[in-house]
């Protein structure tokens, strides 16, 4: 009694408190009670029941039919074998493991006796078996005893249930007590020690803080008394040094960006904590070891627990819970774990800091909210806040500089502690505010000064941590879902289901290792890009020294060499540099850079007017030319490490902001629903099926199968397949979840040049002022000229007046390198078209250019002075000496609007605006050229002229003519824009080009609506209002009310276009959202404006952006879906990139995105239906106390589920975009109606089939009686008609679900083109049909279908297959169904298949859906395509 009480108490302690009164038979019908006619069933005959062996003191005592015999010269031994002599150490076959040793020798008689037990009664199995077997041997029943260790003569070799009471002092329990005792003692002891120590540290810190506060007050009083005598002393430029910490220059906490607001906690090492952490690691391994031990013991008949199954399984359950929560806690709190074993302290004592940063994920496609999603998200957030999981936790080592300043490195950036603000911030150096101040810093730094700066900002090296393979694997498996997966699989290993456990483990490990490989490859690529070092000459202590690029700090002066990669962001101080910026901007041609001027007091703007003097980290120096003989080309380092543009790029790649998709959000709800279904199964298992631990194990099996461990792999496999298909089309993806977003794109923004149109501009000719030569002569002689007019358009340079030819040939910054033109692409095209040649220049001139050999005048021209093109001024200028006339000419070239403002108004033709507008409407890129002739004698000679400023050169100029380029559409742009629009996608142009050019291209490619009126909005500076005009008739409709036109846009199509200034005015006046979806063209947009424009569209719907790099990088990163038409490193900021610079790539992205989304939903629905069919099957198995054979389970969980999950992803994308997009909502009406409808159909068919089964004469009175079976041996519960019927019917369901959800519909190709799926579906259906319809055969017997015990098959004259068949555990001894019933059952199953297919195709996807969609339309974004 005491032992039983102890056992029950142990089970309660281990978490098992299940009812002990359980009904293990059907609750609403009596098993084998009545036949179909209402007659009481007779007791059955148990066919060919195997008799237990008889043991005897002497072989001669064995009954004759079972008396063993051996060949001559051999003896029958106690172990049941024939040997020449029997060793004394043999173990008798008659011994029982958990009973006392046998007294004397006992010999086993022969086995293999079988008998038919008439009028079999399961509750009297032992007595009936003994009587039948004894009668068959013609011996009295009483002559054979029950098993004992010392029988008198004969006994049955049937071991009794272990009766030896557990003392709970067995070795297994001692090990458990020791292990868990040490675990609890360690955790409790360390926690108490840690809290006490931290409390002591806090009190000590408060005491010191009060003393420092008092000292600070005294110091302030002393400074007041001292007055301002030291106020004029110059503070050190670099602070944070010993004795002067208060002079550290740093940003205040308020100046930090919101994402930089973080909580920093300090910790120090502790010897006891290190010991406890080591013990924790050992205990973690110990948890695994104990689970292995218990699993091994299960297969050894509970030998460690003296054969006590209840206590052993109860112990396993308790340890399973501990295992789950232990590893779940390790997974969830892994980033805090190390600091748990450290002591919290002050910053001064700290060895480590814990950084906590709040980074809530951005949830895409959250346009419609529902209460269930909101509740689940609120519960999730509450749980995260409760356990501190709402922040991203990172631990970093705390270090000190030589001067004692404390710092740590976080996300590759050094954070320095500033005592006056008591915060950690990245240190910043202000080197100068104006161009002149920066240009004067040519003397470099001292070694001491450089070392001090390096301590504050760190080395110029981004150390990218890439773990080795073991650590990468450990990082991957630290995810929480792996804990769930392996905890669930441990049940499979324990409960005699190890074959499926091995298969699922292999799939999970394979997918995990693939993910590890892909991630490591990506990280190594980033590491290769980020970790760059080289040798470089740095000016230190007044001399250039060869050092590593990692030694550079802000303020250093370094030498720039040909062919080198720029190691940091810097400013050119001397020499001319040509750099290839394609690695960052995507621009195809190298760019010239010029030194800052010491007389330029304008503010330094690195991305604006000063960009022509700024070099960027990661770009390649194509050419570096000193301006003085023997001089050096030098630059001033301004930003290093992550402070550079490239450093920021790497940082964003390494530490991206978390994002989530509504698809992922609703998976959480789905898992909760499935978990609730699992709880229902738990209740049913307790009520209907089994008692004690068996009920728990069956219920956990049900939960593990409802929430398949393969679910995560199945949900991303569609994305992986789509990424592979995109890769085959040269579209590369670095963020797989974005593929799903591509499937929901509603708005697609396009850059124009290089995206919609060809890469470069073609020279389209010029349109000079009429009679240009005479007009210029008249102006030079101060004569009168008439009103200027435009001459005819000429298409080649040789037809242009010579003076304008000189302007076209010289007004640029083109140079050559290794025979290649370098400079602005437009300038290169203009210069190439001129036919002139660049000659070697001397020291006195910038460039020498000579005309083509076909020119009538072959005299060269010398470029005396040049001011480069500046975006802020929108112009450039050159001064040249014409050696033919010895005259000096100034040419100013720029945007036609800007040249008009700069030129003398009398030189502007009256139809200037109309001509330029007409050219722009034709898609032309128009520049203007102005001219001025100067007399060197009047201005003081050439030396005086060299001192002229840019403003002096660009004044008093006269318009000369227009230079015209044309940007041609790519050949396939029009058709692909049309396909995007046919796919319900609004296309928008965001360009830096002029509005009229944008309008022309939009019309030409079909982006703008056909025959639509286009209104252009521009800002009127005089009135500070937006003026709208008709681009086709601006004179008649010069200032119209745009709202009136938009009211009638349904009848008369209207499109809007705005300039960059108009866009900004609309933003500032909060009107942009009103017109946003009516604006087709955004022109003259800056990079910042592009980002803002994309973000505004993102408010209205899923937005994609495409561009060719450069100014598009910000917008590409900001968009939901960005595709960079560039193979440069800058493309890494975009989720997608392609080297195929065609709009077709955008179409392919949407096609594959929609297919991937539809496929992911299909995979989700398939596994959900797997869980629902499994739940339905579990309910039937619990009710009838049956199951399916082991190999049926393996077929379902390995071959059917795994292979069909893969096969459904093989559906290819549709050939064309459809006007609808696939749903992304797992809980939407379409997904729910599909799943719930199939659940209902399957329930109806399965219930009907069982009703049909119970109407069969041959079945009634042959029902399965679970009283005759051990329910803990689940694999013995399938040898009956109920289990066989259930297996066959559900197999059809498992197979058919894959086909039901794989109709191509509108986003994928038809199902018959998914050859792997069709093959597997047909193959599996054929196999199951063969099992069902075929007579007894080897294949069917392997799966226990239409088969039986061989002796029973022989008794009833059934075919006997030549394979091993384990003994059937039912009285009938077989489960062979009548031939007629099999065909009827097959017809019902095929009817189920057809009904599901028809329901999905007609109701969910077909005309019924269309009817309800029209009657009850969803709220969608209304857009004009």
Automatic annotation (TrEMBL):
<feature type="transmembrane region" description="Helical">
    <location>
        <begin position="502"/>
        <end position="520"/>
    </location>
</feature>
<dbReference type="InterPro" id="IPR023214">
    <property type="entry name" value="HAD_sf"/>
</dbReference>
<keyword id="KW-0472">Membrane</keyword>
<feature type="domain" description="P-type ATPase A">
    <location>
        <begin position="535"/>
        <end position="652"/>
    </location>
</feature>
<dbReference type="GO" id="GO:0005524">
    <property type="term" value="F:ATP binding"/>
</dbReference>
<feature type="transmembrane region" description="Helical">
    <location>
        <begin position="172"/>
        <end position="193"/>
    </location>
</feature>
<keyword id="KW-0547">Nucleotide-binding</keyword>
<dbReference type="Pfam" id="PF13246">
    <property type="entry name" value="Cation_ATPase"/>
</dbReference>
<keyword id="KW-0067">ATP-binding</keyword>
<feature type="transmembrane region" description="Helical">
    <location>
        <begin position="1191"/>
        <end position="1208"/>
    </location>
</feature>
<feature type="compositionally biased region" description="Basic and acidic residues">
    <location>
        <begin position="221"/>
        <end position="248"/>
    </location>
</feature>
<feature type="transmembrane region" description="Helical">
    <location>
        <begin position="1385"/>
        <end position="1405"/>
    </location>
</feature>
<dbReference type="InterPro" id="IPR018303">
    <property type="entry name" value="ATPase_P-typ_P_site"/>
</dbReference>
<dbReference type="GO" id="GO:0140358">
    <property type="term" value="F:P-type transmembrane transporter activity"/>
</dbReference>
<feature type="signal peptide">
    <location>
        <begin position="1"/>
        <end position="24"/>
    </location>
</feature>
<comment type="similarity">
    <text>Belongs to the cation transport ATPase (P-type) (TC 3.A.3) family. Type V subfamily.</text>
</comment>
<dbReference type="InterPro" id="IPR059000">
    <property type="entry name" value="ATPase_P-type_domA"/>
</dbReference>
<feature type="transmembrane region" description="Helical">
    <location>
        <begin position="316"/>
        <end position="333"/>
    </location>
</feature>
<feature type="region of interest" description="Disordered">
    <location>
        <begin position="221"/>
        <end position="254"/>
    </location>
</feature>
<dbReference type="GO" id="GO:0019829">
    <property type="term" value="F:ATPase-coupled monoatomic cation transmembrane transporter activity"/>
</dbReference>
<protein>
    <recommendedName>
        <fullName>P-type ATPase A domain-containing protein</fullName>
    </recommendedName>
</protein>
<dbReference type="GO" id="GO:0016887">
    <property type="term" value="F:ATP hydrolysis activity"/>
</dbReference>
<dbReference type="InterPro" id="IPR036412">
    <property type="entry name" value="HAD-like_sf"/>
</dbReference>
<dbReference type="InterPro" id="IPR008250">
    <property type="entry name" value="ATPase_P-typ_transduc_dom_A_sf"/>
</dbReference>
<feature type="transmembrane region" description="Helical">
    <location>
        <begin position="1167"/>
        <end position="1185"/>
    </location>
</feature>
<feature type="transmembrane region" description="Helical">
    <location>
        <begin position="669"/>
        <end position="690"/>
    </location>
</feature>
<dbReference type="Pfam" id="PF00122">
    <property type="entry name" value="E1-E2_ATPase"/>
</dbReference>
<dbReference type="GO" id="GO:0016020">
    <property type="term" value="C:membrane"/>
</dbReference>
<feature type="transmembrane region" description="Helical">
    <location>
        <begin position="1315"/>
        <end position="1333"/>
    </location>
</feature>
<feature type="transmembrane region" description="Helical">
    <location>
        <begin position="1285"/>
        <end position="1303"/>
    </location>
</feature>
<feature type="transmembrane region" description="Helical">
    <location>
        <begin position="271"/>
        <end position="296"/>
    </location>
</feature>
<dbReference type="InterPro" id="IPR044492">
    <property type="entry name" value="P_typ_ATPase_HD_dom"/>
</dbReference>
<dbReference type="InterPro" id="IPR001757">
    <property type="entry name" value="P_typ_ATPase"/>
</dbReference>
<dbReference type="InterPro" id="IPR006544">
    <property type="entry name" value="P-type_TPase_V"/>
</dbReference>
<feature type="transmembrane region" description="Helical">
    <location>
        <begin position="1229"/>
        <end position="1250"/>
    </location>
</feature>
<dbReference type="InterPro" id="IPR023298">
    <property type="entry name" value="ATPase_P-typ_TM_dom_sf"/>
</dbReference>
<keyword id="KW-0812">Transmembrane</keyword>
<feature type="transmembrane region" description="Helical">
    <location>
        <begin position="479"/>
        <end position="496"/>
    </location>
</feature>
<keyword id="KW-0732">Signal</keyword>
<dbReference type="InterPro" id="IPR023299">
    <property type="entry name" value="ATPase_P-typ_cyto_dom_N"/>
</dbReference>
<keyword id="KW-1278">Translocase</keyword>
<dbReference type="GO" id="GO:0046872">
    <property type="term" value="F:metal ion binding"/>
</dbReference>
